[in-house]
Design brief:
This protein is mainly beta. It has helices at residues 5-22, 341-350, and strands at 28-32, 40-48, 54-60, 65-71, 74-77, 82-91, 97-103, 108-114, 117-120, 125-134, 140-146, 151-157, 160-163, 173-178, 184-189, 195-201, 204-207, 212-221, 227-233, 239-245, 248-251, 256-265, 271-277, 282-288, 291-294, 306-314, 320-326, 332-339. A four-stranded antiparallel β-sheet has the order 1-28-27-26. A four-stranded antiparallel β-sheet has the order 2-3-4-5, with no helix packed on it. A four-stranded antiparallel β-sheet has the order 6-7-8-9, with no helix packed on it. Strand 14 and strand 15 (184-189) form a beta hairpin. 46% of the residues are buried.
C-alpha cells in the first residue's frame, strides 16, 4: 500500500500545531483598553458585541467613573444623566449601550445611549433603576425600585418599562441579561426567602433551581436561552458556576478552589467568569468543550504584565472582556482578549 507523503506532512504539521497550542502556548492577543484620559486611572469592561465594541466604565483617583464605548482603539466617554457617575453594562450590535447613571439628584437611573444621546429610562415608580442588558432590537432589561419599595426586574421596549415581577411568593427580583428573542435572565427571591436564578420567557418567570444548595444567581444568557451564573452546592460547601441548558443545571467545577462565578455565555455555550484557585486567588476562566481553563495561562508573555481576575463578557468570535490588575500601574484595567488564529483552528479541529 502506497502512502501519500504530502498527506503525512500536513497531518504532522497539524499535530505539531495542536501540541504547541495545548502546551500553554499563547491562545489570545491582549489589548489594554486604557482609560478615558489623564484624570482617569482605571477601567472595567462589562459588555461586548459581535464587532468587538466594548462598554464599561473608567474611573478617577477619587472614585468617580464614567461609562465608555470602546471601538477600534478609541474609548469614548458617554457622559452622565447630569450626575457625577455612570457605567455601561451591555452593548448591542448597533453600538447602543445600556447601563446606570446618576441624574442631577444623584439618583441611579437606567439609561439607553443611542445616536450620541443618553436617555433616562425612568423607573417602576420607585427612586432608582439600572440597565443590565440590551438586545439587537434595543429592548433593555435591568432592575428598578417600585412605588412599594420592592426591587423588580423590568423589560423596556418601545418607550415603556414593564414590571416583570418575581417568583410566586417572592418580593424582589433583578434582571442581568437578555437575548434577541426577548428572554430575560436574573434572580428572584422565593417564598422561603432565598434567591434563585430565573428565566423570563413568554410572560412567565421560571425558577431554574440550584446545584443542591439554597441559593443561585444568573448573569448571562445566549440565543438558545442557555444561562450561566452561580449556585451554592449541597450543604453550602461550595459556590460553583453553572450552565443551565435544556432544563438541566450543570456544575462547571472550578480551577481548584471553592468559589466559581459564571458571568457570560456566547451562542456556542462557552462561559467566562471567575474561579478561585487552590491558593484562594480569583482567576478569570473560559469553560469550553467540557473543560475550564485559567485564562492567565493563555496569554503568553502578557501574563508578566497582568493578572486576569474576572472574565466579564464573551462574543461569538470568542473575544473575552477581562478585568485585570496591571503590574505597571497598580490599577484595575479592562482587557480585550482576542483568540489567535492557531487557537481557533485548534478548537475547530477538536470539534
Amino acid at each position: 500500500m502506497s502512502i501519500n507523503k504530502e498527506f503525512v506532512r500536513i497531518v504532522t504539521v497539524i499535530g505539531l500545531l495542536l501540541t504547541s497550542v495545548g502546551a500553554n502556548a499563547q491562545q489570545y492577543t491582549v489589548t489594554d483598553l486604557g482609560t478615558l484620559g489623564e484624570n482617569y486611572v482605571s477601567s472595567s469592561g462589562a459588555g461586548i458585541n459581535a464587532s468587538g465594541q466594548v462598554t464599561g466604565s473608567s474611573g478617577t483617583l477619587f472614585n468617580g467613573h464614567h461609562a465608555f464605548l470602546y471601538n477600534n482603539g478609541t474609548m469614548q466617554d458617554l457622559g452622565t444623566l447630569g450626575g457625577t457617575n455612570s457605567a455601561g453594562a451591555s452593548v448591542n450590535a448597533s453600538g447602543e449601550v445600556t447601563g446606570e447613571s446618576w441624574n442631577t439628584s444623584q439618583r441611579s437611573r437606567a439609561f439607553l445611549y443611542t445616536n450620541g444621546t443618553m436617555q433616562d429610562l425612568g423607573t417602576l415608580g420607585g427612586p432608582g433603576s439600572a440597565g443590565t442588558g440590551i438586545n439587537a432590537s434595543g429592548q433593555v432589561t435591568g432592575w428598578s425600585y417600585t412605588d412599594l419599595g420592592a426591587r423588580h426586574m423590568f423589560l423596556y421596549s418601545n418607550g415603556t418599562m414593564e414590571d416583570l415581577g418575581a417568583l410566586p411568593g417572592g418580593t424582589n427580583s433583578i434582571a442581568t441579561g437578555i437575548n434577541d428573542s426577548g428572554q430575560v435572565t436574573g434572580s428572584s427571591s422565593t417564598s422561603s426567602g432565598t434567591n434563585h436564578a430565573v428565566l423570563y420567557s413568554n410572560g412567565t418567570i421560571q425558577d431554574l433551581g440550584t446545584l443542591g444548595g439554597n441559593e443561585s444567581y444568573a448573569f448571562g444568557i445566549n440565543a438558545s436561552g442557555d444561562v450561566t451564573g452561580w449556585s451554592e452546592t449541597s450543604g453550602g460547601i461550595n459556590v460553583d458556576a453553572f450552565l443551565y441548558s435544556a432544563g438541566t443545571m450543570q456544575d462547571l467545577g472550578s480551577l481548584g478552589g471553592t468559589v466559581t462565578y459564571g458571568y457570560a455565555i456566547n451562542d456556542s455555550g462557552e462561559v467566562t467568569g471567575m474561579s478561585s484557585t487552590s491558593t484562594g486567588e480569583g482567576h478569570a476562566f473560559l469553560y469550553s468543550n467540557g473543560q475550564m481553563v485559567d485564562l492567565n495561562s493563555e496569554i503568553g508573555s502578557a501574563a508578566t504584565l497582568y493578572t486576569l481576575y474576572y472574565g466579564q463578557a464573551i462574543n461569538n468570535s470568542g473575544q473575552i472582556v477581562v478585568a485585570a490588575y496591571s503590574n505597571a500601574t497598580g490599577q484595575f484595567v479592562a482587557l480585550l482578549l482576542t483568540p489567535t488564529s492557531i487557537s481557533r483552528a485548534s478548537t475547530k479541529l477538536h470539534q
